[in-house]
Q: What sequence folds into this?
């Protein structure tokens, strides 16, 4: 894994907010030449530190709907099969492995509380899940 200096960190921070920012804008914001920005971008991409560029859609930042974080405990050796089943639930937008008490952490979205309740039941019915804890995200700060 490459070592990041302050310029790399600032570049990544800007790109997280605007992944489509042109090199000229990035160079102005960072106070460095366009060539420096392009070299840094190439190095970050080549090293795998930056995987690509994306947009933030209205659904990602909107206030409508219910968003939550779910922590999941998986029984024994069934993690791979359980993950495969969870990936089939469209409202489960992201899934991460983790350490500690929980085996997996997921990000859920649903249009209504009734949909949210349905999704929770669907997640809890997946074979291999022995326990879960869910926290609704109330506001972004």
A:
């Amino acid at each position: 894994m490459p070592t990041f200096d302050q310029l790399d960190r600032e570049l990544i921070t800007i790109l997280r907010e605007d992944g489509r920012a042109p090199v000229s804008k990035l160079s102005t914001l960072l106070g460095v030449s366009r060539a420096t920005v392009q070299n840094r971008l190439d190095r970050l991409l080549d090293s795998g530190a930056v995987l690509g560029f994306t947009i933030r859609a209205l659904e990602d930042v909107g206030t409508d709907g219910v968003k939550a974080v779910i922590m999941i405990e998986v029984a024994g050796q069934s993690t791979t099969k359980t993950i495969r089943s969870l990936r089939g639930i469209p409202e489960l937008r992201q899934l991460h492995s983790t350490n500690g008490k929980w085996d997996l952490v997921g990000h859920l979205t649903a249009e209504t509380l009734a949909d949210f309740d349905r999704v929770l039941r669907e997640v809890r019915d997946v074979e291999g899940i022995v326990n879960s804890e869910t926290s609704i995200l109330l506001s972004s700060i």
About this structure: The radius of gyration is 19 Å. The chain is about 40% helix and 20% strand. The domain at 59-136 is CATH 3.30.70.920 (Alpha-Beta Plaits).
